[in-house]
Amino acid sequence: MKRLLVLMFTMAAIGCSGTDSDVQEADANTLRTRNLALAYIDSGMMNEAGVKLEALKTLLPKEAFVYANQGVVALRQNELGKASTLLDKSDALSPNHPEVALLRGEVAMLTGEFEKAKQILENSIAVNPENVRLRWARNVDIEHVQVIVDAIPENIVARLALIKELLQNENFDDARTHLLVLQEQGVVQDEQAMGLFNGAMDQIDVGNARVARAQVIGLDNVLKPTRAWQHSQLEVAGAPGTIGHPIREFLNTAVPEQPTPKPKTISFTKNEESVLPAGKKRILLVESPTQSALITASDTNTITLVQIDWNNDRKLDVVSGTTKGRVYIEGGDVLLTENGTAITALTPWDADQDGDLDLLVSRDNTFLLRNNGDGSATVVPLDSPLLHSTAIIDIDEDGAVDLVGISENLHLVVLKNERSGRIRAIENTMPDTLVLDLVVGDFNNDGWMDIAWLDTNGAAVIGNNDHRGNFIPQKVGGLGLTIFAGDIDNDTHLDVIVGGETIQIFQANGNRSTIPVKGYVQVIDADLDGDLDIVVNGEEYAVWEQDGTPGENEFQKIILEAILEGGQRNNSLAVGGFVEVSAGGTYQKHLITGPMTHIGLGGKPADAIRVVWPNGVPQEVIEPAPNQVFTEVQILKGSCPFLATSNEDGSWVFVTDLLWRSPLGLKINAQTVPPIAATQDWVKVRGDQLTARDGVYEVAITTQLWETHFIDEIKMIAVDHPIGTEVFVDERFVAPIPPEYKLYTYDNVQEPVRAIDQNGFDVLDIIRRRDGKRLGSFAKGKYQGIGEDHFVEIDLGDVELRSGVDIIAQGWIRPTDTSINVASSQGSSSPPKALEVSVPDGKGGWNIVIPNAGFPAGKLKTIILEIPVGSFTNNDYRIRISTNLEIYWDRLAFATRSETKTQTIPIELRSADLGYMGFPVMSRVDDVAPNIPDYNDIRHGHAWRDLEGYYTRYGAVKELLSRVDDRYVIMNAGDAMYLQFDAIEPVQDGYTRDYIFFSDGWVKDGDWNTVDSRTVDPLPHHAMSGYPYPPEERPVELLPSHPDWQEFHTRYITPAPYLDVMK
To answer: Is the pLDDT score of 824 beyond 70?
Structure first.
């Protein structure tokens, strides 16, 4: 009957005259529409998801899945009433379904209907008594937790929850019994866990339930990073995520069976026109779906050829390595002169992850040929044995691309990328396995890179990555000396190619074929028709083309184009990045190794593609076009937390960003991490940006970039000043000595009479007022944040200055990041230069009066440049502000300070609550404008590879913000801290009011080269000698034994949800 139901719905959609083939097409359309709706939800694109769900409702008007997921969309858009109505309709179609009940309960909890939420869950539990997720949602009841433990006794999360409840009830005997079970399960292992376990047992023995429970809470926290705890949490709570977990399968409609494609039998025919004589090394380059080129080595001693874009000009270069040790670019420069020792390994690898490709080289030793970005290279020694058969790989899915190779004694060697330019050789990954050759790929489509190798008998073996640093062998067969991989039959699975006396192809579907030729193999779409061919360079050079032509939806070719001008955050080909594809329920992941990535689709159109660029920035496309070209989108990874204020309708509006003065682990070059000079930040909030509602001012600190934030103190003051005066604070970053807090009051702010830029152009109209017109008349450089040397020169005119004058400069900066700083410091590129302020010297030159004026600390900032008294000569009141940073001025004005009295009023913080917001869409109006978040368009999901560690749990956090004391709120990307301040009396007549918002804390971003960027630890503190700091410096407030780590910092986050979002 369910199958008939689907057919009835789909026939209604296509009309009564539909044929059997029409019905089958409609069924496929139904499934694709479902898959696309889920893809949009997973990508946080709620409006687009809503469109697909509406289309699905037309096809399946009585399917509970549709209304449930429409409820999820409404829930994530904060339309709680609409979400409740839709979920109730879903429940009517599929009564008491566990997943619908969980969503209905979540909405009821968010609307404060706690009794209703309880009843919804209890009703579903009565119908589904074995559903552990329902019972876990009601885990405040010890009976439910006990049922979970009985059902899945190995689940340590449930057992720990039960122990805490037992101690709450002073049931010491049962609590002791369950603690001993945990010990028997082997999860209590390290010293800290054992200490807490023993402490809990001791307190149980003396009957102290409160302290014993605190010890168990501590034990729970300590175990959260372990694989066993993470698996247990997944089992009882489902995938960690955002608000509202979507339902992924139809609830009361059978999924129509789709015809299974027959395994494809492949064959090849030699293209006689491609045949060339032996004796020279050749490589075929395919740069686009319509362009290929054959490159022949110019040196007869060439032993290896690799494709690379060495100079990042988006044009392929070919690098040759010879038997005499020379490494050179075909038709270009020599990178290494010969030394008589053969090159055994030559692999492009952005080992320092600075946006240009380096080369791993092995000849008399193994080293990195570091690309300095200016045509030169530097030899960087590595502590590694000699290697051959090298390939890049992310062996542990931590985002830092590693390399694998084979040593002289035929053991697998991993060059582990520890970030920040640190490479560590691991030689014991497979100590009992000897390897002749290897190739890297995700052979089982689980999102982890595997290794296929030839054993010493020449037989192929696939080693599946077990996610713990081991490779589980699976025998394939064959006999040869070389091994390769590619999806030859376009069925979504990688096949294995062995080169020996013949070319042997082992398809993942079990079929096998042979090409009767021997030689070095290149697997590539040589004839550009959509399937992979075999290029053989042996007794002759020849292209063996795969017979037949691929049909529609059998393949996808992806080309990545990195931004080069004013960017260079990634190498131009995105080598070292990843492409993930979902298509009709299938998933696959490919490591990018060249200009074009070939993906087999198995006859199903791609639903979604996610590119993770080498610098870690993700980019998604739903419903991609065939042969999609992905151009890098310029997305900031980090720019500190944002400050927003609430409108009268409750919506949020961006004001500025915070905490630029205290970045943790940020390098200014390849080696140097400067000390943090200040942790306090202050910004002005204009009076028109903050309005009291219901007796409170509402402010939010939002975090949507690849960062972790540590916020120790929050406070705000009001500044009442006479109408006609203006007040400012200096919102600059200056190192090593930051500016002190000072309130600037002016009653005579004036605009210059003239202004020119470095090209001599009149720019007065651009900078005379704060109107969104910004000065950006300089050429961008190679790297984001650094342009050509440029200046703006303003003329104050015929003024009478009896005291110093201040320049009020308003604008924003596009920042560099650690990896950009590392890259720009390696070659001959100009380093970043802080603002420099000069005045005429009276002799036709210029005197520098402020040599290091820093720069605006973020978006929409005001900085005050105090020109010293006596700086000007001959009544020439020109001022030149110079830099090479990407600083875009909106307004430049000047004034002398006023003696007018102002009134400063402290404002009491009433409440602070940490919660989840999501990711407001960032956009800018033009190229010289900053990216600004739109809080009316918020996406949900997992936008970044989160830094792993403990974060502050959601809820009230005011206690952590009252003073500077190293007891702080730890915020993750997607979080928001909602602040309410008590409204003060209205401003008196003749005065106007602005506000100053103060924050104290630190920011740590996920950039690969930022120090310790993988984890939340080491936790910062105000007395630290540097970052990182010695363990003995860690203050008591940051130790796990401190009560904050039982009450507040209990939310443990890993990158797993981000990694799994496409699976």
So the answer is: yes
